[in-house]
Amino acid sequence: MCGKYDPNIHHRRSIRLEGYDYSQDGWYSVTICAFGHKCLFGKFVNGQIQLYEYGRIIEKCWKWLAEQYDYVHLDSYVVMPNHMHGIIIIREGGSRTAPTSNTQKCKPLSRLIGAFKTVSTKQINIIRNTPGRKLWQRNYYEHIIRNEEELNHIREYIAENPLNWGTDEENPDVMA
Question: What is the pTM of this model?
């Protein structure tokens, strides 16, 4: 059955919180991994991340989310060699423009991440002349930030992530 759907082996379990409205106001921590965990975005030199051109595009596209959608705000983030971590804030009432009758409903987190992945993939694939090539893994990890203690812990994790690259399970050079 190569290439055909087989429900016995092709089933995806959602990692999202069932029944939760991911378009509502909230703070969300996300981790997005490169397809095949390939280190396309940068490397570490003397403990500092040095982004390649692709990594700089990832950073630019991440910031684009807040420019494109007036209800999206960004907090801490870091682009690593083969993944990124970031905090997205959805604030429907936080519009930077005067409200109009044409105001869009907030996109859920999954559609925002999808937009980020699409835009960054297209830009990078233009540069590497590889139309249609995958850049990101199919899914992403998310966590709903519920209080200030969690927020501070996640901000600290993001800030310290580069320091821990030598032992990071996403680092392909780390022995399992």
Answer: 0.82
